[in-house]
Amino acid sequence: MIYGAVVLALLVTLTLALVRAFQGPTVFDRALAGNAVGTATMMLLAIFQFISGRPEFVDLALVYGFLNVIGTIALQKFFRYGDLGEPGGTEGERR
């Protein structure tokens, strides 16, 4: 019973975050909403593990959480610097 209430609350949170991701007035609102979607999905995977009794889903939730953090950092770096990395080659080879 309690798992059903938690899943319902997470689905409502996920829906509201998706609405914010699509309607966000700024790109930062959309990035924050994307992070919230990732967090809610990670928690849904953890709850599904408790319901099904399969511990593999905790591993999936952790990997998804790590990918969520890496994606958020990459997005912030892209918006701050305009690219995700330096071009190849040495300093002398660049124009």
Question: How would you sum up this structure, described in words?
Answer:
There is one protein chain. The chain is mainly α and 95 residues long. The protein has one domain (2-83). It is 78% helix and 0% strand. The protein has helices at residues 2-23, 27-52, 56-81. Helix 1 runs antiparallel to helix 2 (27-52) and helix 2 (27-52) packs antiparallel against helix 3 (56-81). The radius of gyration is 18 Å and the shape is flat.
Radius of gyration: 18 Å
Order of helices and strands: HHH
By DSSP, the count of extended strands is 0
What percent of residues are in strands?
Answer: under 5%
Point out poorly predicted stretches. none
Class from secondary-structure proportions = mainly alpha
Quick structural summary:
With 95 residues, the protein is mainly alpha-helical. The protein has three helices and no strands.
Show the helix and strand layout.
Blueprint: H1 2-23, H2 27-52, H3 56-81
Helix pairs in contact: 1-2, 2-3
Task: Based on the model shown, name its key terms.
single chain, 95 residues, mainly alpha, 3 helices, 0% strand, flat
